[in-house]
Amino acid sequence: DGNQRIAVYGTGEAAELAYLSLKEQGLEPVAIFANEEGGTFLGMPIRGLDQHPLVQFDRLIVATLDKPDPVVTLLVRAGIPAEKLLTLKPASPMLPAHLKDDEPKTAIRA
Q1: pLDDT tens per residue, range 7-37
Q2: Rama region for 34: left / alpha / beta (φ>0; ψ in -120 to 50; rest)
Q3: 110 or 28, which is more confident?
Q4: Whose C-alpha in 15, 40, 63, 109 is 20 to 30 A from the C-alpha of 88?
Q5: How many Å apart are CA 84 and CA 12, to the nearest integer?
Q6: What is the rounded distance in angstroms from the CA atom of residue 90 to the CA atom of residue 104?
Q7: Sheet holding 44-48, edge to edge
Q8: Cα-flanking dihedrals φ and ψ of residue 80, to 5°?
Q9: What pTM, to 2 d.p., does this model score?
Q10: Burial of 24: CB neighbours in 10 Å, binned 0-12, 13-18, 19+
């Protein structure tokens, strides 16, 4: 659905690639999240992870080129439903039990 509100978690190279890919599709991210608030990322303010309840989004791109498991766990513990997460790489099948039912989706498959 082209009307989905998409946010990005991360401010590194993977986040830049995700941001540019969204822009190429005519989509504007609704927010950029990181562990700590502050600064800007490609002209957008960086919001702290604790601000996620203040932003309405349908999907959150987990922008890391590393294995996403630690970040997925962090985001779920912060209260973001796993089914809203899109990872660039598949998450491990050994995720904690509370993630088994609603595993994150992989945005890009290798």
Answers
A1: 999 999 999 999 999 999 999 999 999 999 9
A2: beta
A3: 28
A4: 40
A5: 21
A6: 8
A7: 40-41, 44-48, 31-34, 6-9, 59-62, 85-87, 105-106
A8: -90, 125
A9: 0.81
A10: exposed
Structure-token pair, residue 70: 């630690």
pLDDT in tens, 33-89: 999 999 999 999 999 999 999 999 999 999 998 889 999 999 999 999 999 999 988
- What residue type is 80 in one-letter code? I
Length of the chain as a residue count? 110
Task: Give the residue among 9, 20, 5, 103 at the shortest CA–CA distance from 62.
Answer: 9
Query: Which two structure tokens, joined as six digits, stand for 49?
Result: 């992870």
**Residue type present at position 81:** P
